[in-house]
Amino acid sequence: MPQTIELIMPDDFHVHLRDGAALQFTVPDVARQFGRALIMPNLKPPVTSAALALSYAERIGAAIPPESIFTPLMTLYLTNKTSMGDVRNAFDAGIKGFKLYPAGATTNSDDGVTRLDLCDPALSMMAELGMPLLVHGEVTDAAVDIFDREAVFIQTVLIPLRARHPALKIVLEHITTKAAADYVQSAPEGIVATITAHHLLYNRSAMLVGGIRPHYYCLPILKRESHRAALLQAATSGSPRFFLGTDSAPHAQDAKEAACGCAGCYTASHALELYATAFEQAGALDKLEGFASVFGAQFYGLPLNTQKIRLVKESWQMPAELAFVGTQKLIPLNAGETIAWRFDGVI
Ligand code: NCD
Ligand code: ZN
User: Fold this and answer.
1) Cα 275 to Cα 249, 268, 336, distances in angstroms
2) pTM to 2 decimals?
3) Relative to the CA of 217, which ligand 1 atom is closest?
4) Is 145 among the residues known to form the active site?
5) 136 ligand 1 Cβ < 6 A
6) Domain 10-308: what homologous superfamily?
7) Residue 106 in contact with ligand 1 by CB distance below 6 A
8) Where are the domains positioned within the chain?
9) How far is CA 40 from the centre of its chain?
10) What are φ and ψ of residue 14, in 5° steps?
C-alpha cells in the first residue's frame, strides 16, 4: 500500500489567476486542490476598487467547475492614492487585504506605490479595521543587488512601517531569505509570511546551472541553498506565522522563453504534491496540515474548511506543457519531470 496523507482541505493565500480567457485554465487548477485562494490584484489595469474586485470575482466564479466548493478571496492593489474611504469600502465589501507592490518590483507593478508615506492614512484605517497589508517585500532601487532586495526591504521599509503602524497586520509574501524567516519569527505579534513550494524545493542553482532555466525564474528570485534551508526549517517548524501561498503565476511559453523573460512559476496544477515533497524531505509531513490548511485561515479569521483531501506517495509524470489561451502553451514548473506525490482528490 502506498503511503497516504489526509489533510483538512488547504487554502492558497497567494495566487495569480489573470483574467479573461486565462481563467478557464487557471481557476480549475486552483479549485481542484484548494478550498479558497487569495487572488492577487496585479491585473492590467490593476484591481484598485471594491467594485473592480467584485466584478473580477464574478468572472472567476464563472470559471469554477460546477462540482467545486472553491471560493476566491479578493484583494486590492494599494496605490499612492488609496484613501481611507477606499479602505472602508473594501472592508465593507468583504475584501481580505491590500497588496503593496513597490512600483516596478515585479510583473504588472508599474502602478505600484512610489511613496509609502502617502499611504499612511489608508494604512491607519486598515490597522483600525484589522485588515491585513500584503507585502511584496523587495526594494526597487537599482543600486541594490537583486539577491539583496528582500533583506534591504526589511531593514529600510518594513521595520520603519511597523514602527509607524504597530497594530497593522502584515503578510510578508513569498519570503525567500533567512533574513525574512528570522524577522517574521522574532517580530512582535501581527506579522506572518507565506512561502511558495518552489522556494522550499529549489535554490538558484536550479535556475542557472547547466543552462538558464526560465521556468524557475520568479520574483523574489531563488536564493542560495542556506536560504532555502532556512525557509524549509521555518515552514516545517509548526509556527503559525508561516503558511502556504503558492504564488503560482502563469505566463505563456513565449513570454517566459524570451530574451527578456517574465517572472513567475506556474505551480497551481501540482502545488500540494510539491509541498508534500518538501515537507517529506524535512521529515515533517506531520507539520503540513498546519501550514497548508490551518494557520492561514486563522490569520485571516476564516473557519477551517470542512472537507478533506488525500495525497498518495505515488509517482507520476508532469506533462511537458499545458493548454493555455488560444494557441499558447503554459509550461508548468517541473514540466516533464517525475513527481513523487499525487493529489488524490477531495475525500
Ligand atoms: C508574479 C506575476 O507574474 O504576477 N510573478 C512572480 O514572479 N512571482 C508577481 C509576483 O508575485 O511577484
Ligand atoms: Zn505573486
Assistant:
1) 16, 12, 18
2) 0.98
3) 7
4) no
5) yes
6) Metal-dependent hydrolases (3.20.20.140)
7) yes
8) 10-308
9) 8
10) -175, 105
